[in-house]
Amino acid sequence: MSILAGSQSRVLVQGMTGWAGRHYSSSMLDYGTKVVAGVTPGKAGMRFLDLPIYGDVATATREHRIDVSIVFVPPDHAGAAMIEAIEAEVPVIVTVTERVPLHDMLKVRAALAGSRSTLVGPNSQGILSPGQCKIGVMATASARPGRVGVISRSASLTSEVIAQISAAGLGQSTTVGIGGDPICGLTMHDCLSLFSKDRDTDGVVVIGEIGGSQEEELADFIAEARPKMPIVATVVGRCAPPKRRMGHAGAFAAAPSDADGKIRALERAGVTIAPSPHLIGETIRNALRHADGAASQVA
């Protein structure tokens, strides 16, 4: 079992005929993901990668069952593309596009309210359920099926963490890149809530970074919900200079939401903090062993 998407998910690619859409659609198809169609305004009726292209999402959803849409659309049009998918009631929308204008994302957030859609992103590296589906731009060479969920704001560190978890003999149930832009859809605590209900996820790794308040909100959720599975976290950006954006549009060091403040909040909620990013695999392995030992003593 996985969260958000799995082996039977049928995927629509918005912006398939652009360079990024073509490149990553080919990669997703090669992985075995069920990409069924694409959308590019003005190109309805053509075939691309041997798949039908439609002029809009509504038409595509009338012709195919669509479970997930992935958006490879430039920033100035990405907001409209997301709203189009929301209005077509696509269940899960993954947006890879980075730096979508904030006013556009406010409109997207308003469209999401009360809708049937869940948005992952923008600035998301996607969803990866090893052996089932890849929806996005994540590297897959080190990914292995397993029982550790991964929630990440950092694309590059995600690849490193996946490799560590696989090397530790654990593997991943699903990895979700929630994105690094200031306004996004699915949050860290939304994602953890999904993992806590997944019978095939035994533990979760959280990759946080400076900027925003998602890690603090996650800590509040954990303190209240007290999920039974072990949770390991790292927060990068401890050496970032204050009041300077670092990489992602949403990565902005400003007290009290700097890296140390986020780490303290997570520790107070009972999260295990990895001593260093290069020790995440070892830390989640030890946390799972400790949890198994405690469960055996109770039994």
From TrEMBL:
The active site is at residue 248. Residues 4-100 form the CoA-binding domain. SUPFAM superfamilies: NAD(P)-binding Rossmann-fold domains (SSF51735), Succinyl-CoA synthetase domains (SSF52210). One of its GO terms (molecular function) is succinate-CoA ligase (ADP-forming) activity. Coiled coil: none annotated. It holds the Pfam family Ligase_CoA. GO terms for cellular component: succinate-CoA ligase complex (ADP-forming). Keywords: Ligase, Nucleotide-binding, Tricarboxylic acid cycle. PANTHER family: SUCCINATE--COA LIGASE [ADP_GDP-FORMING] SUBUNIT ALPHA, MITOCHONDRIAL, SUCCINYL-COA LIGASE SUBUNIT ALPHA. Belongs to the succinate/malate CoA ligase alpha subunit family. This is Succinate--CoA ligase subunit alpha. It comes from Jiella endophytica.
